[in-house]
Design a protein that fits this description.
The protein is mostly beta strands. The protein has 3 helices and 17 strands. The strands form 3 sheets. Strands 1, 2, 3, 4, 5, 6, 7, 8, 9 and 10 form a 10-stranded antiparallel beta sheet that branches. Strands 14-13-16-17 form a 4-stranded antiparallel beta sheet, with no helix packed on it.
């Protein structure tokens, strides 16, 4: 019985304790992984949401290069939305991944543990020190296979607070975790009735009403988890959706002057 108990304790320690995470561990993504973050900055009203989808991965000698489809939405007094393609290059794979902030007179408190979604977490926190005058208080977090550093900090000297948090992820390694923020709902004040889709629900073909043939329009289909399914330029007023699984989707229509998002159901 004692031997069994000792074995269980050792399993708990080895299975739930983590040293500093390396770059290879933190930035270990797979094609199809989805990460959604929320950012606030310096008292500026509003929130910046970024939805990243890993669309390509190239592994080299001591280096990994990711191609990321990024959907950015700012929700505030003047809302905005962009869609871009980003490149993330990860090298020094065996080195410890960098945290957000260090202050020389404010040594960090190290802690590593298992997160709610199974992945390892490497977290550092600032600690009060009498040699600092109103030092910035901060927490920096790295997630195994989910990136970072994500952080929360308050600078009492400048009255600035900064927050960058991971609010949702759906990855090959860990599965879904967190609360997905529906970007289409967040931008609903920007959506007009100028464009419509029919039939809705639809099973084979989606007809877009209100699109002029003379306007070059890119469409993107995004599923209910925020994953980009397809993107291309419209060549007619209809889109073949016969191969989509049943469910709720969002159709994004982009021209040089506007971005519109329409919700449809595939049956």
């Amino acid at each position: 019985m004692k031997k069994l108990l000792l074995t269980m304790i050792l399993f708990w320690i080895t299975g739930h304790s983590y040293s500093q995470l390396t770059n290879a561990e933190v930035y270990n993504f797979e094609i199809g992984d989805v990460l959604q973050t929320k950012r606030t900055s310096g008292g500026t009203p509003g929130y910046l949401y970024e939805l990243d989808t890993i669309v390509n991965k190239v592994v080299g000698s001591g280096i990994i290069t990711y191609t990321i489809q990024r959907h950015t939405v700012f929700i505030g007094p003047v809302s905005s939305e962009t869609l871009s393609v980003e490149t993330l290059v990860v090298n020094n794979l065996s080195s410890a991944a960098n945290h957000y902030l260090y202050v020389s007179c404010l040594p960090p408190i190290d802690s590593s543990y298992t997160g709610v979604c199974v992945q390892g977490i490497d977290q550092r926190k600032s600690d009060w020190d009498t040699s600092c005058f109103e030092p910035p208080m901060w927490i920096s977090t790295l997630h195994e296979g989910l990136g970072g550093p994500y952080y929360s900090t308050v600078d009492y000297s400048n009255l600035i607070d900064l927050n960058y948090e991971l609010i949702y992820s759906n990855t090959v390694q860990w599965g879904p975790c967190g609360s997905y923020f529906d970007l289409a709902v967040g931008m609903e004040e920007e959506i007009t009735e100028e464009f419509t889709v029919s039939p809705n629900p639809a099973s084979k073909e989606l007809l877009i009403n209100g699109i002029g043939d003379e306007i070059e329009t890119r469409f993107s289909i995004i599923n209910s988890h925020g994953k980009l399914i397809r993107t291309a330029f419209l060549i007619s007023s209809s889109i073949d959706i016969s191969e989509l699984d049943m469910g709720i989707y969002y159709l994004k229509l982009e021209t040089d002057t506007s971005i519109k998002i329409l919700k449809f159901i595939k049956v």
